[in-house]
Amino acid sequence: MTTIIRIMIIAFIAVISSVNAQDFQGVATYKTQRKIDIKMDSTKMNDAMQKQMMEMMKKQFQKTYTLTFDKSSSLYQQEAELDKPQVGGGFQMSFDNSGSDVFYKNIKDKKYVDQKETMGKNFLIKDTISPIEWKLGSETKGIGEYTCFKATYTKQVEKRDFSFSGKINKDKNSEEDKEEKEPEMEERIITVWYTPEIPVSNGPAKYQGLPGLILEIHDGKLTIICSQIVINPEAKIVIEEPTKGKEVNQKEYDDIMEKKMKEMMERYAPKKGSKESGFSISIGG
Q1: How far apart are CA 203 and CA 271, in angstroms?
Q2: What is the b/e burial string over 175-186, where b = at least 16 CB atoms within 10 angstroms of the residue's CB?
Q3: How far is residue 235 from each of residues 26, 29, 230, 242, measured CA to CA in Å?
Q4: Rounded CA gap, 218 and 144, in Å?
Q5: What span, in angstroms and rounded, lies between the C-alpha atoms of 62 and 83?
Q6: Is the dihedral of CA 171, 177, 182, 188 positive or negative?
Q7: Alpha-carbon gap, residue 209 to 207, rounded angstroms
Q8: Residue 119 neighbours by CB under 8 Å, 6+ apart
Q9: How far is it, in rounded angstroms, from Cα 216 to Cα 229?
Q10: Can you say whether residue 277 is alpha, beta or left, with left for phi > 0 and alpha for psi between -120 and 50 degrees?
């Protein structure tokens, strides 16, 4: 009789959990920041101006995002912010084109739609979710009221340094500069913390695939940390796939951005024979 009662209780709990899961929703707020390496070499820029520019650039990489989610889908988007910081003369500081206007993800259908406005054009990037080979650890820590577990995975990434410079290296051969070189790769370990107490296999942007919501991410120089979570808010959440922009896949978009970046670097590169010292800013990945 005891065994039968246990089976009935387990079955009852399973039914209740299934019903609750259908309506399970949440909103998580994330803060992001990216470390940057700034090297300035200019006789025209005093220490105060250099410090001001460095602070403005740091703020460019400190953003707030919200992740609205249910059991199978989510929307990740940046919160509205004030105008971009400016330096005297009206020069606008804006170097980060990696963010999304709206990032829709459907774990059940294994697809994502990334709606971006980049360089004055709207793009709708549609592609499939790539599985991540997570290594689950036993290490735990508390984030807010949630117990989180550590997980890592290793990936190969292209070494990238976006440098804006007013200097010319006269030792460089212009013909050599035009040669296409194979990108240099490096191994990177991504570390995240997730909580099984929020039973969704989801997280910010493309991070997903764990038995619980991801609350903290360390990916190279990028850090993402959850600052607030609301489970089953009073107002029902509507998660819809974005539809605005030119439809491309991820590779097509990456190729377009690479071409635009090269064009921009060529446009703003100092003219041959120029003696201007300018300044150099390097932003790593």
Answers
A1: 45
A2: eeeeeeeeeeee
A3: 10, 17, 11, 21
A4: 18
A5: 14
A6: positive
A7: 7
A8: 97, 260
A9: 13
A10: alpha
Residue spans of the domains in the chain: they are 24-284
18: confidence class by pLDDT, cuts 50, 70, 90: very low
Whole-angstrom distance, CA of residue 266 vs CA of residue 113: 31
Q: Range with the lowest mean pLDDT among 19-33, 93-107, 179-193? A: 93-107
User: What is the rounded (10 degree) CA torsion for 122, 103, 25, 13?
Assistant: 140
Query: Distance between CA 111 and CA 105 in Å, rounded?
Result: 6
Q: What does pLDDT average to over the chain?
A: 78
Which of 137, 103, 131, 101 has its CA nearest to residue 201? 131
- How much is the pLDDT for 103? 97
Say if strands 111-118 and 102-106 run parallel, antiparallel, or are unpaired. antiparallel
Run of H or E residues at 163 = strand 161-165
* pTM confidence score: 0.74
